[in-house]
Amino acid sequence: LQRVLRSFLPAEYLVPGGRVFVTNVDATANAGKAPVAIARFGFFDRVLVDAPCSSDRHLARQAKGAPHGLAHWASGVVKSNAERQYDILLCAATLVKKGGMILYCTCALAEQENDGVVNKFLKKVGKAFQVEPICSSGEEDHCEGVERLMASADKTAVGALFLPDRSSFGPMYMARLRKVG
Question: What pTM does this model have?
Fold first, then answer.
């Protein structure tokens, strides 16, 4: 992730004390509460949850060159991933400030890991969060590239799913959640 961020963001954003903070901690260790390693930095304007998932994207790519890529997949993986993703999303909710945003992403096709996790989260947090379009009004200056991206997406109940047959990437799922309460 850090390599990707370095390739897209200005260097001053990534220096210590800059606008972007990247860390690697187990967000599920404290049952939906933020680990001290992250919480000590306070509340954030935006939190990206790039959730570990069944990695359908990676399985599809492995299957092209090595048919045994699917041999490591099991039906219980989706359920256990969804539980872990839900815990990570609850953790992210404790880190974002009021008015802030969470972008929840996976590379899974399973509804259980995508809208299923987001709907379970929304049910738990009540009206504290609301779903927003990936690109909202008032952000037009940032939306030109996103609108082109969204043209290849299938809208879901609460997010968007990008399929590899309609874009040069995918599968990828995104849902944007705003903290309002």
Answer: 0.81
